[in-house]
Write a structure and sequence with these properties.
This protein is an all-alpha fold. The chain has two helices and no strands. Helix 1 (2-64) runs antiparallel to helix 2 (70-92). The longest helix has 63 residues, at 2-64. The mean pLDDT is 85.
């Protein structure tokens, strides 16, 4: 019984050490991919969505006479968040 419990403790300690060492070696690669691929793709999608929403809001304003700012402000806030995220997201993680 004692031998089984000692093997379990040793196995769990080595697994956590392996996971930790794998994360530290892969962290820089993950950061490069996310900073250079994922965030720019999100930025482009949000920028296109923002311009489309502004155009639709303008056409809606011409048709109905009232302008809806809330969706435009939400998309703009998301764009600002995704543009500035690479500066601080890695300190959080």
């Amino acid at each position: 019984m004692l031998a089984v419990s000692m093997m379990t403790i040793t196995a769990s300690a080595s697994v956590s050490g392996a996971v930790t060492s794998t994360w530290t070696t892969a962290k820089s690669q993950i950061q490069d991919i996310v900073n250079n691929v994922v965030f720019p793709v999100i930025d482009v999608i949000l920028a296109i969505l923002l311009f489309v929403k502004i155009a639709v809001a303008y056409l809606d304003y011409r048709k109905h006479g009232q302008l809806e700012w809330t969706p435009i402000a939400i998309i703009f806030g998301g764009l600002l968040f995704s543009l500035t995220a690479p500066m601080y997201v890695w300190t959080i993680i």
